[in-house]
Design a protein that fits this description.
- This protein is α/β, with parallel strands linked by helices.
- The chain has three domains: about 15-195 and about 205-235, Rossmann fold; about 250-325, Ubiquitin-like (UB roll); about 330-425, Up-down Bundle (de novo design (two linked rop proteins)).
- Helices cover about 40% and strands about 15% of the residues.
- The protein has helices at about 15-20, 25-45, 60-65, 85-95, 95-110, 125-140, 160-170, 220-230, 230-235, 270-275, 310-315, 330-345, 350-370, 375-385, 395-410, 410-420; strands at about 75-80, 115-120, 145-155, 215, 245-255, 260-265, 285-290, 295-300, 320-325, 435-440, 440-445.
- The strands form three sheets. It has a five-stranded mixed beta sheet, covered by helices on one side. A four-stranded parallel beta sheet has the order 3-2-1-4, with helices on both faces. It has a two-stranded antiparallel sheet with strand order 10-11.
- A hairpin with a 6-residue loop joins strand 7 (about 285-290) and strand 8.
- Helix 4 (about 85-95) packs across helix 6 and helix 12 (about 330-345) packs antiparallel against helix 15 (about 395-410).
- It is globular, with a radius of gyration of 22 Å.
- The N and C termini lie far apart (about 45 Å).
- The relative contact order is 0.12.
- Bound molecules: flavin mononucleotide and iron/sulfur cluster.
């Protein structure tokens, strides 16, 4: 049976009492007993990798952030803005206690008195469950010596980008800052270039240090108490050598049963799709996207294991484990246009090649989709794709490059028919799979995004 219940128990955990009965709290107790250094070593031994999309080794991130001198902060990234991804909200609903316990262990390891949870203001149910869990755990004395603050942020995709997340927690717009969180952490004074003009005034909160800040995805942190309480060896018994553990996957799009399913790492993508009921009646899969940050996965690669290394080997990536499926009735030119439009609208514009480049690519793709494009237009898309990543502060421009160029390379015939002025596929509504909810096997997309303009305002319906 490929389904796992390591993080997602069969029924939600709704009280601290229930959580403690299930063995909750033991990870934090052990971390307090063995101390930060040994705890970080245990996380490193487990091979746990960040579930926010990049798969960065968690133990190495913790060790290097701790090694930077200064006042430390920790942040749980619960912004969940990646299209086709609903796993962090599922985890918050199913068991907020393990997320808070994981963050508490991270705070302990960084000697950080303040821990933040950055989540969207519109995730009301999830915020409430986190709030209640924090209150209960605090009242039980589990969070002694630390303060947990929930920061409610905007709906923008960039809110989940770690450098933008810190800006939001500080009360600004989600515009990625220049330096990474361990070099320019929360509430540090102007050390974008590693220096400042003057020492802080008396009473000023800011400090001259970089305030090295640890940012981890919520699912990453949810794994931490289990690694500590059950041991790194037990964790390594699941998954592959390079990608141990489980991954909480989202499946939406052209599938029978959209949903969130926890899988052991290393299970083939095709098994996940079987769990999601396979394709719709009479159809067959054509392609999948793991969010909007990786190259398209052709259906002929659906036997690829769900691991960072295997997904990389086919030229794509596991991302945050959220998959949008497209069947043989979907036009990939329309999909390329929709994904490019999403990234272009969400680009913040601090780096002109990203904002203007992705806007130009989107405009040309619209023309090609409408059947009025030319070979020269395809050449212009190719040229723009080469420069869209220039001098970028964050990875969004690279996402545009990876997604659009991979669709062009994988489905050249579909572009060719569009250049001839027609499309053999049925006209279909193919919205960006930005999720508001998944209810009984049906994904609810945020259709409002179709009206979002490049300046982040919305057109009237
Ligand atoms: C445009 C963009 C959006 C992102 N959105 C999210 C997000 O919603 N949630 C998340 O955890 N990470 C997101 N990330 C990744 C974070 O920047 C960061 O790598 C992650 O929170 C690190 O945690 P991890 O090491 O536990 O994976 C995003 C990255 C980019 C470039
Ligand atoms: S790369 Fe794009 S989204 Fe990222 S900071 Fe620059 S303009 Fe903004």
């Amino acid at each position: 049976m490929p389904l796992s219940s390591f993080l997602l128990a069969e029924s939600p955990v709704t009280s601290l009492e229930q959580y403690l009965e299930l063995g909750g709290g033991k990870g934090l107790l052990r971390a307090r007993r063995i101390g930060p250094e040994a705890t970080i070593e245990e996380i490193s031994r487990s091979g746990l990798r960040g579930r926010g999309g990049g798969g960065f080794p968690t133990g190495a991130k913790w060790a290097s952030t701790r090694s930077v001198p200064g006042r430390h902060y920790v942040v749980c990234n619960a912004a969940e803005g990646e299209p086709a991804t609903f796993k962090d909200r599922t985890l918050m609903r199913a068991n907020p206690y393990q997320c808070v316990e994981g963050l508490a262990i991270a705070a302990l390891c960084m000697d950080a008195p303040d821990a933040y949870l950055g989540t969207k203001a519109k995730f009301e149910v999830e915020r409430l469950s986190l709030e209640l869990a924090i209150q209960e755990m605090d009242a039980a004395g589990l969070l002694e010596g630390m303060t947990m603050i929930i920061a409610a942020g905007p709906d923008e995709y960039l809110f989940g980008e770690e450098k933008a997340l810190l800006e939001v927690i500080e009360g600004h717009d989600p515009m990625p800052r220049l330096m990474p969180p361990f070099q320019h952490g929360l509430f540090a004074t102007g050390p974008q270039m590693g220096w400042e003009a003057h020492a802080p005034e008396p009473g000023q909160l800011a400090s001259p240090e970089a305030n090295p800040t640890l940012v981890n995805n919520l699912e990453t942190l949810a794994n931490v108490p289990h690694v500590l309480s059950r041991g790194s060896e037990r964790f390594r018994r699941m998954g592959s050598e390079e990608s141990p553990g489980t991954i909480v996957c989202t499946v939406v799009g052209d599938v029978a049963r959209a949903g969130v399913y926890e899988m052991e790492m290393g299970s083939p993508l095709s098994e996940l799709l079987e769990v999601a009921g396979g394709p719709l009646p009479g159809r067959h899969f054509k392609a999948a996207f793991s969010g909007v940050a990786n190259a398209v996965i052709h259906a002929s690669d659906f036997d690829t294991p769900l691991s960072y290394e295997a997904m990389k080997a086919i030229g794509s990536g596991l991302g945050a484990g959220g998959f949008a499926l497209y069947d043989d009735s979907a036009c990939m030119v329309a999909v390329a246009h929709e994904y490019s439009r999403f990234l272009s609208v969400e680009s913040c514009g601090q780096c002109p090649p990203c904002k203007t480049g992705s806007a130009e690519i989107t405009a040309i793709l619209a023309k090609i989709e409408a059947g009025t494009g030319s070979e020269a237009d395809v050449g212009n898309v190719g040229r723009r794709l080469q420069t869209v990543t220039d001098a970028n502060r964050c990875y969004l421009g690279t996402e545009e490059q990876l997604v659009v160029s991979s669709i062009l390379q994988t489905f050249p015939d579909e572009f060719a028919t569009h250049l001839e002025g027609w499309c053999e596929l049925p006209a279909r509504h193919l919205p960006i799979p930005k999720l508001d909810d998944i209810v009984e096997g049906v994904a609810v997309y945020d259709e409002r995004h179709a009206r979002k303009r490049p300046d982040w305002t919305y057109a009237e319906p």
